[in-house]
Amino acid sequence: MNSRKWLVICVILLLGIITEACSKPNTYVLKSPNQSIELTINNTDGALNYEMYWNGQQIVQNSELSIFPNTKVKITDTKVSSVDNTWNPVWGQFSEIQDTYNELEIFLDYEGVPATLYVRAYDGGSAFRFVINELLVDAEPAFYIEYGLSAGDEVYMPAGESMPKGPIVLNDLAQMDSIPYRWQVPLVVETEQSKYISLLESDLVSAPGFSVIDFEYDKEKGKLISNNEFTSQEKKVVTPWRLILLEENIGDLLTNTVPQNVAAPLALEDTSWIKPGKTVWDWRVHGYTAADGFTYGIDTESYLRFIDFAAENGIEYFMIDDAWYTNVSEGHIEMSDKLDLQKVMDYAEEKGVSVLLYYDRREGDYGDAALFQYYKELGAKGIKYGFMGSNVSFTRDAIQRSAASELLIDFHDSPVPFTGVTRTYPNAITREYCHAQQDSRRAFTPQAFIRMALINALQGPLDMNNGVFDITGVNAGEREKGPKAKNLYTTVTAEAARTLIIFSGLVCIPDAPEAYSEKSDLFEFIREMPVGQWDETKILHAKMDAYISTARRHNESWFIGSVHNEPGGTLLVTLDFLEAGKEYDITYYEDTDKTHFKTNPEAYRVRKGTVKKGDVIHAKIAPGGGHCMWIRPSKK
């Protein structure tokens, strides 16, 4: 092909991406690579507005966005580009991610202050980011964006450790005297056309001076709004990416890769020390008495038993929670006399098990700059950071400092939802942006789990501590730590399924080693399941307040976990993702006909068989129960 013909083709392609309509001056249209999503940007009467269409239907009505609210703006120039490449995350739901989008770069003038708006159109949604290369002293930027949704759209949102809120019909809000909600990210919207939207942000790590977005509803405008001020003294302003994800099925929001694609690339040269995996955990086991009469506590012998179990079952980590120390000063921790930590660390190293140590900031700042190197010197492979608060700059520093000391970091207790950060700093292995198992059990019901799996999990990896096998013992109040309310509503098969459904780089299983050994045939699903190193992930079924079914592939093996709310039901799992012409062995981990999440939570059965591509599995699930499958190529 000669260069002239190639130039003509390029011009035609660019015209398909962006056009300036003669009938509408200062109006620009940006389309996604497959043309399904269309963004219209217009500059009218000194304001910058956008609209969003999906397969010809308007999803977001005319809405304003600005980096200087209440300041007139004009477009001075535009630039269009296209990107089509792939990249490989250090760990994640996919081993390879396709990054394909069209981008419109809009050069702006805010009454003498230059700024640039980047707009990206993906097949799975859109993204907006402002950049100011040199901020004038008297300028006061704030990332303001409206979302003109339809009055009949229904909204769901996280609520900390409580049941996520929703459905909230936007038209109902317009009738209220005041809006009784704090709108946390991410929002999930079910449109009037039964399609699904998620509103969130990504790459906060690259945006010093901005806090996590909150949403509010403006009754006069009839729109959701987010408005975050820039608080830094930096001359350069870079906002996070504001995202609008679009999917036909709610479960596909969980595998939408736009939040990862817009995040900054990997910032670490060496990631060989970053290893996702499973961990046993001591905190919720204290007070458990095994069949041999041994009672777990904060002591050396208890921790050696945990390590033995981890080593015997290929579990990579052992997490020691609070109370292993008594006092903290800058760069130093006073050890508790209840245990010999050095003996525990040496024994873990001998057994090939890595240790994660908890740290609690509730009493103030203990010199965090020195903390991470101190943990490394102790022999820890990671830190579980407790009670750090929702402080963005502190969280960013903690992630970077832990990376410098080659430590994994797990954020506990209402952390910042740093969506996309695992691409940039994959040592940020997980975070408790949810209601964790056995914490404030007022919210832990089958319904709450499904909501959190479809809402909270959109912001990234979750530390939820699923996998309780001694449900009866926990509800009998036989453990020392945690609430005494006897309302852990689940089944043991649901617990196994939840460890797969909730994506994380660190799957923390919270029960006693003996509880797992007593149900070793069921524990096989958790033991054999890899963590974080998935090649492919599919959400097979998902419905808010009803059920979710997740399938993840590692090499040629598939792991499938499903859960159901009341009253239970049967999910049809079509094995069309298997390779044709090949026989597979399958193990089913199931509820029984007598299983019930309140009255008989520990009844289960395990059976085996063979399957092939196209087979349909009838996954029968008890009320509040679960179903698991492990599928791998037959050895016959």
Automatic annotation (TrEMBL):
User: Where would I find the Glycosyl-hydrolase 97 C-terminal oligomerisation domain in this sequence?
Assistant: 533-631
Domain Glycosyl-hydrolase 97 N-terminal: where? 30-265
MF terms from GO for this chain are: hydrolase activity
Q: Which keywords belong to this entry?
A: Calcium, Glycosidase, Hydrolase
Query: According to its UniProt record, which cofactors does this protein need?
Result: Ca(2+)
Q: Which residues form the Glycosyl-hydrolase 97 catalytic domain?
A: 285-432
* PANTHER family according to UniProt: GLUCAN 1,4-ALPHA-GLUCOSIDASE SUSB-RELATED
- Oligomer and partners: Monomer.
What name does the UniProt record give this protein? Answer: Glycoside hydrolase family 97 catalytic domain-containing protein
Question: What species is given as this protein's source?
Answer: Zobellia barbeyronii
* Phylogenetic placement of the source organism: Bacteria, Pseudomonadati, Bacteroidota, Flavobacteriia, Flavobacteriales
